[in-house]
Amino acid sequence: MFHSAFDLLSQPPEAYLIVFALALGDAVVPVLPSEAALITAGLLSVVGDLTLGWVIAAGALGAYCGDGISYALGRFVGRPFQERFLAGNRTERALTWSERQLEERGGLLLVVARYVPGGRTAATFTCGITHFPYPRFAAFDALAALSWAVYASVLGYFGGRFFENHAWVALLVAFGIAGALTLAVEGVRRLRRQ
């Protein structure tokens, strides 16, 4: 599996389009491996033919566009979907809570949610459902998408620098660090909830 990912992501300019597409798709369907693709592409900017700046740009632009789609789906399809399939007091309470959290912490919530698996989709979709002001959404989401793309790409890049002669070790270390950071963010979130 790793070998086929390397092959797919090793040839510019197709690699940049793949990174863009995965980041865009992951914002709407959070099972696509966008973070893994960015880490791998960052590594390939050391041991392959990719350029780190283009990897970051492709990932950030894809994430930003995908988040915009998720926001639009929430805004224009979210309420009818919620009323048809998720009607009830619990859903209304959750939406009221979400709206209050977005009012108080909107920007921070969008940036942090970008690093939580599934969180980016939930946050951007909820922003649309609750009619969070689009200019604020766009500004904070740009920051979130760019910081996430830099984080994942640079993680792969420095892994490649430290383990230049052992690309597989670099990739595994980078994935391990990304997984540990994700678990840490999720752990802090759960502790704060209690």
Annotation, overall tally of beta strands: 0
Most strands sheet: none
Radius of gyration: 18 Å
In percent, how much strand structure appears in the residues?
A: under 5%
Low-confidence stretches: none
Give the N-to-C terminal Cα separation.
Answer: 39 Å
Enumerate how many helices there are, as a single number.
8
Which class of secondary structure composition applies to the elements? mainly alpha
Order of helices and strands: HHHHHHHH
Gross morphology = elongated
Highlighted features:
single chain, 194 residues, mainly alpha, elongated
In words, what does this structure look like?
The structure is a single chain. The protein is mainly α. The chain has one domain (2-193). It contains 8 helices and no strands. The longest helix is centred in the middle third of the chain and has 34 residues, at 52-85. The protein is elongated, with a radius of gyration of 18 Å. The protein starts with a helix and ends with a helix.
